[in-house]
Amino acid sequence: MQATADHALERAWEVLESVPDPEIPVVSIRELGILRDVRRADDGQIEVIITPTYSGCPAMSQIAEDVAHALDAAALAPYRIATTLTPAWTTDWITDEAREKLRAYGIAPPTGNCGFAPQSAEQPITFIAKPKPKPLPAPACPHCGSQHTERLAQFGSTACKALYRCIDCREPFDYFKPY
């Protein structure tokens, strides 16, 4: 019986690897770090854990629907899909492959590292003023590679992206904000 359970989980991971992000279809929800876990729940059901890129992400219902459709198509019922906000998603969870796919698609991936590692245990909230972080360099243009870019708006096509323009090639582009 255990071999069947393990096979079902492996199959679920495999199937969900190909579920694209509804806003950026060139990357999967796993590559973006939205797909956090696929596990066997206490009641034996497959449990899929997803985390939004930010707490108000309007794409989460579509992502849950796409996950359900993929699991149904692979005959992996029964299952349940749970959304968790902790630990909070960070751009550090975006895979290197996804960063390259974003760049090729015309979205500048986040630069630097936020320094957050996923925590498996609950962490107490401590309110301590942090020193102001050193500003990151402007992102490179995903079209021509120039470092000569400027931010046009704090929010781009979605709240998790900013709108930039390359001063050299004059092309606008989204930049996935690091957080």
Proportion of β residues? 15-25%
Mean pLDDT: 87
> How many strands, which pairing sense, and closed or not: the largest β-sheet?
4 strands, mixed
In CATH, the homologous superfamily of the largest domain goes by the name Fe-S cluster assembly (FSCA)
The outline comes out as elongated
Q: Report the CATH C-level class of the largest domain.
A: Alpha Beta
Overall structural class, as computed from helix and strand content, comes to: alpha/beta
The end-to-end span amounts to 42 Å
Indicate how many domains the architecture comprises: 2
Extended strand count: 7
Here the CATH topology of the largest domain equals GMP Synthetase, Chain A, domain 3
| Order of strands, widest sheet | 4-7-6-5
Number of helices: 3
Describe the protein in words.
The longest helix is centred in the first third of the chain and has 15 residues, at 2-16. This protein has helices at residues 2-16, 60-73, 96-105, and strands at 35-40, 46-50, 79-83, 107-108, 149-153, 161-166, 172-176. The model has no long low-confidence stretch (mean pLDDT 87). The chain folds into 2 domains: 2-83, GMP Synthetase, Chain A, domain 3; 106-110 and 134-179, no CATH class. It contains 3 helices and 7 strands, in the order αββαβαββββ. By secondary structure, the protein is an alpha/beta fold. The strands form 2 sheets. The chain has a 4-stranded mixed sheet.
